DNA sequence: CGGAATCCCTTACGATACTG
DNA sequence: CAGTATCGTAAGGGATTCCG
């Protein structure tokens, strides 16, 4: 279980770690996926239009596309309700919830980052 | 310090959290930034060409651009060495290292995700 | 060696209109 | 209401060349 080396410099473990990071990055790629997940994590089950309102600025094309990709990856479920006119609910799957640690760390960092920026601006005055 | 409400539905705290997540996402946007940070976190100080070799496939244009953006955001330092021909070293700043928890969670999730995919393929056979 | 400049192409994304 | 279809643009990104 020691560190396996490739061409004397980079360990396999290290490379696999980089690959894992890259996988995650790819799945969360796109302009809105992270925010969609964060919204569903914060607010729970949400309808199409509610998501569109929460994600101010997103159009129907992008919202549909990103939701589909998230569903394909097993991160959210799509449920069509028996109403008229129809309504559709989206919800994080249990697997989708497993992304929560990443989102949480991003929230933490983003918050402190904004604080840092504000401090820097204050110093310049 | 209770939960402040906006239009009776979304709390300010919740909205600020979403904004923080979005900030982080923006700073880590781009095809290579996360990987650059991960590489510098794993391998420490690295030269331009070494990075290019580690990030198999990246071209000089993208590498330069993403490095500059990371530098502007205070996440990495760029040091020109007195050699001939010149060499340049890139390194994570202390602030850059503060992104480590995010990267770590991404590595963790990506690893388990790959495991899950492999399991699913195995079941189908 | 590090990187800027150029060219070119694809994709991502947005706005709008339309449908069950 | 929840999308799909279509169109158009801007940006992202790759390959190559050139320069200090």
From TrEMBL, chains A, B:
<dbReference type="Pfam" id="PF01638">
    <property type="entry name" value="HxlR"/>
</dbReference>
<keyword id="KW-0238">DNA-binding</keyword>
<keyword id="KW-0804">Transcription</keyword>
<dbReference type="InterPro" id="IPR036388">
    <property type="entry name" value="WH-like_DNA-bd_sf"/>
</dbReference>
<dbReference type="InterPro" id="IPR036390">
    <property type="entry name" value="WH_DNA-bd_sf"/>
</dbReference>
<dbReference type="InterPro" id="IPR002577">
    <property type="entry name" value="HTH_HxlR"/>
</dbReference>
<protein>
    <submittedName>
        <fullName>Transcriptional regulator, HxlR family</fullName>
    </submittedName>
</protein>
<dbReference type="GO" id="GO:0003677">
    <property type="term" value="F:DNA binding"/>
</dbReference>
<keyword id="KW-0805">Transcription regulation</keyword>
<feature type="domain" description="HTH hxlR-type">
    <location>
        <begin position="14"/>
        <end position="118"/>
    </location>
</feature>
